[in-house]
Amino acid sequence: MKVHSAMHAYLSAFVACSMAAALFAFAMPLAAQIQPKTPAPSLTPQSPAAPAQPANAPQPAAPAKPAPAPTPESLAKGKSIVLAAAKASGGDALKTVKSLEVRVSGQATTQNGPMDLTLKLTIVFPDHLRNDAELPVGTISQGFDGKAGWILAPQGLIDLPPDFIPEFSRGIALTGGWGLYQQALDGKIEAQYLDDEDFDGKKTSAVQWAGPSGPVKL
Questions:
Q1: pLDDT one-digit tens code per residue, 93-144
Q2: Neighbours of 109 (CB within 10 A)
Q3: Which residues pair with 133 in a beta bridge?
Q4: Strand partners of residue 114
Q5: In the chain, pLDDT over 70 holds for what percent of residues?
Q6: What are the backbone angles phi and psi of residue 22, rounded to the nearest 5°?
Q7: Integer-rounded Cα radius of gyration of the chain
Q8: CA 133/CA 139 separation, integer angstroms
Q9: Which candidate, 95, 116, 113, 96, places its Cα nearest to that of 104?
């Protein structure tokens, strides 16, 4: 079974997209607030409004089937699978990875038309993160120092509530998979084997990791 290559490819793609989307969700309302002829800005981040859907729009997919109740055997197998992936991806050498950086650039669609943007994600293991979004209206940054999160925008500094901490920790662990692999090598993860599935035309083992913000299927 292909375990480490499929898992690593999934983690890299998943986190690069999800972390960019997370910062984009904060950046767009803040960016809109500093456009000309807009009301006085608010320092409370808000989620973008959902676009109107046509009457014949496809319906959302049914919720994923819940994972079976874990057993000692499925937990032991899940942990061993992630540990095998960590060893195959470098083993103890992964513990020497102190930081990494991911850059993404492109265009975003907004109510005022296309907007060029560049996103930079910096991780310093084990628990520091910074996102920087360079937009035509300025730079918006998001950070986490292991204890608290914040957003720095042209309007000022916004302290994020503690509810954001688990999601920051999840992002740090899954970016490239290095944080998760480091935890696996230290025996500090809980993972449940689910089943064998096809991934990119190859048979691989599906594992559910008990992440800090909820279960994550790997």
A1: 999 999 999 998 888 887 888 888 899 999 999 999 999 999 888 899 999 9
A2: 10
A3: 119, 140
A4: 109
A5: 71
A6: -65, -45
A7: 19
A8: 6
A9: 116
